[in-house]
UniProtKB/TrEMBL annotation:
Recorded superkingdom: Bacteria
Name of the featured protein: DUF2269 family protein
Segments crossing the lipid bilayer: 6-32, 53-70, 76-97, 129-148, 154-176
Keywords on record: Membrane, Transmembrane, Transmembrane helix
Length: 191
């Protein structure tokens, strides 16, 4: 009975994390396509709040996971070890890389007075490091789901994560390449 309750908490934590990452990615894409400053404020505010859910969802996943490993699975299973390592890495990288940059976007959007998007603000939204980080984290999360379903040995688990990270990097570059940077009226007049 306890095992099933702990498994539920673990799955609930995973659902919260996957929802947060999915909505964060949606907010990022929405900022990239925003037409006005207010949209950037709304989406970046949501992204900042969602990125704050990562530590809580990580705890809801990790604490039960440790129990589940001791109670049933054991530490000798590669997909579990790789998934947990990636989960911890995502939970550290998220606040360090993403949250700081998302707060900069929100602060910049709040400080602008013109409703037209400035090139400086859009430069922050198009931050390649932020996009690469969020995209890679999203694809690594998909990789973790894949490992949970397929339960690969060590080499397969590592290859899955390398492919997921590469797919995240490609995704970030494709999304940035497919959207043209916004031009403010002053730069548009120069052209």
């Amino acid at each position: 009975m306890l095992y099933n309750v702990v498994l539920f908490v673990h799955i609930f934590g995973a659902v919260v994390m996957f929802m947060a990452i999915g909505i964060l990615f949606t907010a990022m894409i929405s900022m990239l396509h925003a037409k006005g400053r207010e949209q950037i404020v709304q989406w970046s505010s949501l992204a900042v709040k969602l990125d704050g859910l990562m530590p809580l969802s990580t705890l809801l996943i990790l604490v039960p996971a440790v129990y589940l490993v001791f109670a049933g699975w054991g530490w000798g299973i590669a997909w579990i070890n790789v998934s947990l390592a990636i989960l911890v890495a995502n939970s550290i990288v998220g606040p360090i890389v993403n949250l700081r940059r998302l707060k900069v976007i929100l602060q910049a959007a709040n400080s602008e007075t013109d409703s037209v998007l400035s090139t400086a603000l859009m430069g922050k939204v198009r931050d390649r490091v932020l996009w690469s980080s969020v995209s890679i984290m999203t694809m690594l999360t998909v990789g973790i789901l894949f490992l949970m379903a397929v339960k690969l040995p060590l080499l397969g688990s590592l290859v899955t994560m390398v492919i997921a990270a590469a797919a995240g990097l490609v995704l970030a570059n494709v999304l940035l390449a497919r959207t043209k940077p916004a031009t403010s009226p002053d730069t548009a007049a120069i052209k």
